[in-house]
Amino acid sequence: MLTGTYKATSKAGRLSFRAPVASDGPAIYALVERCKPLDLNSRYCYLILCEHFSSTCVVAEREGECLAFMTAYLSTERPDTLFVWQIAVDAELRGQGVAKRLLAEVLARPALKKVRFVEATVNPSNDASRGIFHALARQYATEVHESLLFATDLLGDGDHEQENLIRVGPVDLEYNPAR
Known about the structure:
The protein is an alpha+beta fold. Helix content is 24%, strand content 27%.
């Protein structure tokens, strides 16, 4: 069980991927605290995501330590669309394809076989997040569209960049040359 406790680890060792449970909430919260500039949601929010959306979320751990996670959900307005809310990867694992593996783990689940589009919001300066979704588009030989979703004035007192909607698709989950 994950406890929310952070301990340093080496890069050696395999990551295991699984659907989260509510008891992962504190560890996910602690990970996001370490992953600036990600927006830190409330502890309650992470508990609810783990409890109610576990089929579309994933935790990556090693020896019981949460080192990465992705929260996502199926759009109620567009059930063929997976919206990726947040991806966090511990600093020691960044640049090693862990974020792409998180996304692949969720997309491979039987409950998501009808997904044709993947969406997320990303601010203009977040090249790493943008890169994840462009890589997904290349993997599935499909398109990426990006447009303004939330202007800066909607996000507070000007200290938050605008959020653009990035939409990948259509994706054919049966076609995946990376498998």
